[in-house]
Design goal:
- The chain has 124 residues and is of the alpha+beta class.
- It is built from 2 helices and 6 strands; from the N terminus they run βββαβαββ.
- A 6-stranded mixed β-sheet has the order 1-2-3-6-4-5, covered by helices on one side.
């Protein structure tokens, strides 16, 4: 059975999808972009955008009863691979021990012209 996860502390979906879905002890978080939920604004710069994405992921994890320690896989989409190192600096602050498996891809374009999007899978 699947359970839809929603929190006001993360951006609302901008399409026909859920913020996250939990099924059989696994949480699938849709790709998060750096929208500040309270204002709808997008911060400037890759470090600031990565920080906001990670905060959005954290809010969804918390709403579902998970934590960053439960994350087993992340997929990072970057509009420019030249931002990889700066993204890693911020991302690494959230996974200091036992980081999840991860893939990172350079893509042509991301929604709303953002620099980064991260999707996440967590398991209890």
């Amino acid at each position: 059975m699947k359970k839809i996860i929603f929190t006001e502390k993360a951006p609302k979906a901008i399409g026909p999808y859920s913020q996250a879905v939990e099924a059989n002890g696994t949480l699938y978080i849709s790709g998060q972009i750096p929208i500040i939920p309270e204002t709808g604004k997008i911060p400037e710069g890759i470090k600031e955008q990565t920080e906001q994405v990670m905060k959005n992921i954290g809010a969804i994890l918390k709403a579902a009863g998970y934590a960053y320690e439960n994350v087993v896989k992340s997929t990072c989409l970057l509009s420019d691979m030249d931002n990889f190192q700066a993204m890693n600096e911020v991302y690494g602050n959230y996974y200091k021990e036992n980081p999840p498996a991860r893939a990172a891809y350079g893509v042509v374009k991301l929604p709303l012209g953002v620099l980064i999007e991260i999707e996440t899978i967590a398991v209890k």
